Amino acid sequence: MSTTMPTSRQRRLRTWAFWAVPVLLLLTPLATNAYTQFIINGMLISILVTLGFTLVIGNLGQLAFANTAFFGIGAYASAILSAKLGLPWIMTIPLAGALGALGGFLASSAALRGIRSYYLAIITLAFGELMRWAYLHTKPLTGGTDGLPLPRETMFGISLSDDTLKFYIFLAVTVVLVKATLNLLRSRFGRAVMAVRENEVATASLAIPTARVILTTFIWSGFVVGCAGALFARHVGHVFPESFGMLHLIASFAMVLVGGLGSVLGAVLGAVVLTALPEYLRAFPGMEELFFGLIVAAVLVAMPLGLASLLRRLSPIFVERYYREES
Amino acid sequence: MTELLHVNGLSVRFSGLTALDDVSFTLQEGAVRAVIGPNGAGKSTLFNAISGYVTPTSGTVHLKGQELTKLTPHEIAEQGVRRTFQNGGLFPELTVLENVLTGLHAQIEGSFLDILLGRSKALKSEAENIHRARELLKLMSMDHMADTRAGDLSGGQQRIVEIVRTVASDPPVLLLDEPAVGLSPVARAQMMEIIHRLAGEKGVGILLIEHAVELVMAAADRILVMAAGARIAEGTPEEIREDRAVLEAYLGHS
């Protein structure tokens, strides 16, 4: 079945819609209390974590589970650079991204050595656990089990413990990284990523350097998730090794799947819905995990292609394509 | 007629098994050369060795005098030797237009950073190549299917899109691996027409693996017959039809 494509009018509408969301979000601090603001800040971080994850497992189609490792590397990089070197936190964001990218490079080197599918899954899981071991056993640097608190800091005369200030910074970082990722996907690079997933052998026959495509995707994924780690460090104010274990990985994986594998829109939806859901389930004490699990399972059974597929059925402006008509 | 491809003494051995045994031939501009032979004759190994998917044990491949033998598949494709795949090489989840655009990957300008930042240089080249891809689809009367998922096309349409994608960058040499397999008689005739046009009008040198005898006889200028990895005969379709060695290879000794 062929999908109807957006007309040029709908494409303009889509551009408007894309920018309207963050612009409207600028107003949220007026309408929320401190607690809700904290949850929304967490959503922005989850959007980036899910985006980086879906790029590798959804778009590139590599069964790599080093995403939480990239996240932890970014968070610890930000905390260490702030606490030990006294760098302003805002400056640690790109550096945390760069170290996350290095993590991505390491994970891709396994894939490029021909370690694929289940073998890649297990080796990247081991990478994540190894990083957690490193946080625990380099006490002078990371604080070990006690974790590492971020120093008090102000920006524009406002304390960085202020959730409204953090919200605006997180929103800016998220919008920039989501937009940059969309630029990548809607180009020859995005098509090459998808082509590698669909048929790697045929991709090489089209003069596409597949190894470089795999490497670059992992590096960009690591960068996005590493930046998210820096945001997370400031979000919670104190990084602990337990934040970067299997539980985080499984939660991110659920966000990827509930939103829709390999979809940017899906990464946003999955992160928002699964961050908000536990808050609504607080009305059922003792049953939260049960309901959470049931709801995730129900969504996946009803919509194997995730929440994004629901929106695609509603309007062609939600159809994601790997080229960009307007210039 | 300029010589495009020069294959000289190409051999591929896998631990004792000789898959390709000292095969040599040349391919001229605008020529269609068919490679035929029973199953296991080494036709696919020949294609894989030329396109870099299998490393030859010995022998060389040159394109317009430049050696390709040591290059990787994507480098060989960039030099201008492009191929299709027997079992279909389309990307089913991408649209027809996106598939054709993957064939133009190396033609699109702009670095990773240009793309990331959405710089006009990258966007302009992208727009130009989208236009080009649409024109190519129009030539094959496929433009109305540009936004269809490639996996939803019929078998014949998929083969045509794969060829459009493969020749989008105007490569001088094209390797077609069984382009007519599984096609209806109508789609076969269309495939013949496409092969004639590519060779006749654009001067593409075409190397063709095909089992459909009538297509081979009608499309090829010269035929290379292989058996057990080696060349057993070579000549025009008329010469091959009369060749004793060919009859024996196909029908066995009588």
3D architecture notes:
The complex is a heterodimer of chains A (327) and B (254). Chain A is mainly alpha-helical and 327 residues long. Chain A is 72% helix and 2% strand. Chain A has a domain at 34-249. In chain A, β2 and β3 (158-159) form a beta hairpin. The longest helix of chain A has 27 residues, at 210-236. Chain B has 254 residues and is an alpha/beta fold. In chain B, α3 (96-102) runs parallel beside α6 (155-167). The termini of chain B are far apart. The mean pLDDT of chain B is 94. Chains A and B meet through α8, α9 and α10 of A and α2, α3, α4 and α5 of B.
Q: Mind describing the biggest β-sheet of chain B?
A: 6 strands, mixed
Structural class of the secondary structure composition of chain B? alpha/beta
Shape, principal axes of CA atoms of chain B: globular
Describe the biggest sheet of chain A?
A: 2 strands, antiparallel
Poorly predicted runs of chain B: none
What is the gyration radius of chain A calculated from CA atoms?
A: 20 Å
